[in-house]
């Protein structure tokens, strides 16, 4: 008795096996037409607008093998491209510049949209410079896809992007609601490119490695993008992640980083609203791990005059939130922290410089407080007070304050930042140089203080110069409780005054308490030698 081979596809509703349509799993011959035939057999799903008016969609199954593909594979709605992992490999070798996967404009599900396409468990390798994007959500002219899910796919060596999530030129061409999960994106020019109206997109897990010429591993121009638990290895030429919109980055593991502060950044943030947005919103960088300490965040400002004029500040604008480690929730003690309300709440002291609100130089938001030499110059300062009432809930705890400063001065020692307060809650304290991190031209400064009693506390920037043109800008103040655990090299020691060393509170090694009633033969103060609750304190050598 002879047996007749039955194809997998003979079973009603079974996946469409590309081998049944003539695909060659050895890679010796071109399998493009076989893949296209399997896609065509899946039919076309049509929705009007959400009711199914024509049935379509199917699983396109790629058994283990190497498949030579030389032309774009255009997908329709409700397709699942499924392999067995890296054992199912597509080698893409087009004769002209093409994407491997993109939507089929002749099989629109509704409007100009392809709906619900999934790519799962296979590998795609761009074999020449004509291989542009691995998976694209748009043809850039006539069709786009939304609700895209890309799971456990490895995409390597594409000249454009490994994954491109984007829009059509028309305003209604938005690729919404996408998931990229546990993918390996390696050696693509841009591993992940999320264009305008390409979100919200959630990226979870997986691994990214740039090519030798990649400026960024990931570029984001869409709102609502979230990146969680991704490992980023290697060094792009500019930064690992670029974003011009609010983005949430949580628990990202950065395997390698350039240790020079002005070179390779983790995140480059374009602090402007662009032509497609009226609201900058809030960016969060939280948790994670870095192999080497480098620049966490670099800000660039691409405002044009027209965009400045068009920028509107909705109610509830909060700017950028820098959240490293897992700080305890604390209200913003500086309600004008991101300086979007002009000079509100700021006071100038001294007549050597003039305080202005500058909208052309800023790291975050709409403007900065500027202190510039005027007249004959001399010592001047600008001050922001945090009233005692706002500190009463935090007595006995450590508060961390961060702010951004940019100084254009002839003499680097002509300006400094100082914390000051009444009573013994925060004595005068000048911030040392090692309490800063470079963010391009801006410095991220921070210091911590133990709140002993609730009393007024001030952040004050001083400029002591007679050089016309010297100017200091202040921008982006935030406050935290027990924050910045991931950046210990920024932890500056803190100086206090009291009649004895403290018996309560949590203290850092190196904190000092100066004796407020010194006398001959007595100690001038005490130094914390062991960090912790109450800490361990040692008296300094007695005065003569």
Notes on the structure:
With 544 residues, the chain is mainly beta. It has three helices and 50 strands. It has an eleven-stranded parallel β-sheet, with helices on one face. Strands 5-8-12-16-19-22-25-28-31 form a nine-stranded parallel β-sheet, with no helix packed on it. A seven-stranded parallel β-sheet has the order 13-17-20-23-26-29-32, with no helix packed on it. The chain is elongated and about 95 Å long. The relative contact order is 0.07.
What's the short version?
By secondary structure, this protein is mainly β.
Question: What characteristics describe this protein?
Answer:
544 residues; 9-stranded parallel sheet; mainly beta; single chain; 11-stranded parallel sheet; 3 helices; elongated
User: What level of helicity do the residues show?
Assistant: under 10%
**Rg value:** 29 Å
Total of helices: 3
For the largest beta sheet, what order do the strands appear in spatially?
1-4-7-11-15-18-21-24-27-30-33
Name the poorly predicted regions: 1-5, 257-262, 272-280, 301-338, 422-427, 483-495
Q: What is the terminal separation in angstroms?
A: 113 Å
What would the average pLDDT be, to the nearest integer?
75
Largest sheet: 11 strands, parallel
β-strand percent reads 35-45%
Number of strands: 50
The outline comes out as elongated
Helix and strand composition category = mainly beta
